[in-house]
Amino acid sequence: MNDQHTPRAKARGSAFDDVHDVVVIGAGAAGLNAALLLGRARRKVAVIDAGAPRNAPAAHLHGFLSREGMSPATLLDLGRAEIDRYGVQIIQGLVEEIHHGYFVRLAGGVVLKARRILVATGLRDELPDIPGVRERWGKDLLHCPYCHAYEVRDQPLAVLSTHPGAVHHALILRQWSDDVVLFPHTLSLTAQDREQLAAYGVRIAEGEIKQLVVDDDRLRGIELADGRVVPRAAAFVFPRPVPHDDLLTQLGCEKDANGWVVTDRTGLTSVSGVWAAGNVVDHHAQVVTAAGMGSAAAFALDLDLLNEDIDRAVEHHRRAAADADR
Description:
Blueprint: E1 20-25, H1 29-40, E2 45-49, H2 72-84, E3 89-92, E4 95-99, E5 103-106, E6 111-119, E7 123-126, H3 133-136, E8 141-142, H4 145-148, E9 157-160, H5 166-173, E10 180-183, H6 191-199, E11 203-204, E12 209-215, E13 218-224, E14 229-231, E15 234-237, E16 240-243, H7 246-250, E17 274-276, H8 287-325
Parallel strand pairs: 1-2, 1-6, 2-3, 6-17, 8-15, 9-10, 9-15, 10-11
Antiparallel strand pairs: 4-5, 5-6, 7-16, 12-13, 13-14
Helix pairs in contact: 1-2, 1-8
């Protein structure tokens, strides 16, 4: 009988059989991909899912080979089904605290013991306080040109300047449309900004933004404080990324000058035994990137566990040999 989908059925016994090898916190692309590799490595893994993915408002994901145009929800459903085949436990819940050791406490009191931790809790997009922005988010108010600009190519596009990177945002979007308008809003443009925008064919609509104009559930334009409405079919905005890194902060993980948790190339944080992957440590990571980060973390986690297992086995072997000689 083929037991390839019955993890640990023939695996070597371990002193850690009563605990999870890895508890993965977060069931997005990073967390699920890590769990997939660890499950295939016959590790005892639990994934804790709070059920609030960052890309829930998006209808489709892009830039992921073989998954182009798939809905984010479908990708996650497929991922859950795949890791289930390898015996990975999925727990619906919210982690409130991680104690060194590692004890993972969920809301409601459930506590899991883990040898290693992978935090893949993502981030939230803090949107500007402009009427209409929250309602159109993920529809015709977009963020990443490489994720969504192709779908609105050759249409009249707006860039809302709520972030210092808005000028660069507008210049990038010229690759997809000849009709791009930058709305400076409260951002002061430098002489260099204006020169680059003019040279690259990006128009500027001066004045503060009052609201997004919507009709029949479609964006129609951007209304300025003086009453002017500039017709637009889609708009781009740069939200402020806020990582869900409270658990990492509580553990004392080191952060960089910008306030983001620091990891090595595998996702290992400054705290031994704790890895992090995906948007919680890299706000630029797309879905495919986050999945790759989860994969890299899983390889490193398994090798770290293997080294510990070997050390334990050698220690046990030496004790047994010493006892036999007595």
